[in-house]
Amino acid sequence: MGTIRVLLADDHEIVCDGLESALSDRDDVDVVGQARCGEDALKLCEELRPDVLVLDYSMPDLDGATVTRRLREAGNGTRVVFFTYHEGVHYALDALRAGAQGYVMKSAPTDTLVEALRTVAAGGRYVSPPLDAQVQTILERDASRKRKVSLSARETQVLRLLGEGLTLQEVARSLGVGESTASTYRARLMNKLQLENSAQIIRFALDGGFVSPGSRRDDEGSPPGDGPAPGGDHDHHPGLEMGMPGA
What we know:
Layout (H helix, E strand, L loop, with lengths): L3 E6 L3 H11 L5 E7 L2 H11 L3 E4 L8 H10 L5 E6 L4 H10 L3 E4 L4 H12 L4 E2 L3 H18 L4 H11 L4 H8 L3 H15 L4 H10 L40
Parallel strand pairs: 1-2, 1-3, 3-4, 4-5, 5-6
């Protein structure tokens, strides 16, 4: 494998500068540029065509998942490694389902990020432990359920709305149907998926990628038990493990 050309995207200059410094002594990694927002990351990926984009989940304009999806839609072959404080498994799932190949915590040592860069540049996937085992389990369960269960377009729509935290009344209003009809859809959905309550519906919707963490309206968009909501890591700076200035 030759030199891995890397673009860094984070709205904190100290993060990008610290990363570039930490990666500078790696002979097979070359940082070719920095971006401070999602739109700049997209433009620089088009101009520079880096091998790997190291991307924060929370950006001022576009979140990392949106940036990744737009790269894929544009046919850009740059591979994506998320570098974030978000420890919740659903953030990792959201990133991977958007088309990313890596997910690394900002608290990880430099060697972990370098390993992720090398793995992803070689065509593999890398997720920081212990999220890797959780992600693999959920993806396998998700694939198994999709093979066994076929949802109608309407049932899928109801699942997304309930997964976003809407009440049954709000679901009915959104669909333009009566509450009793919406209740029937929900009952049919729960029966198909063998779910027993609203909490299980929300969990299934998140696990299955029917909704993204940022679309949940309760707890300011953060899934229960999954750490800060998107945008929450803007008050933090990288830890000492990465050897970044100002930490």
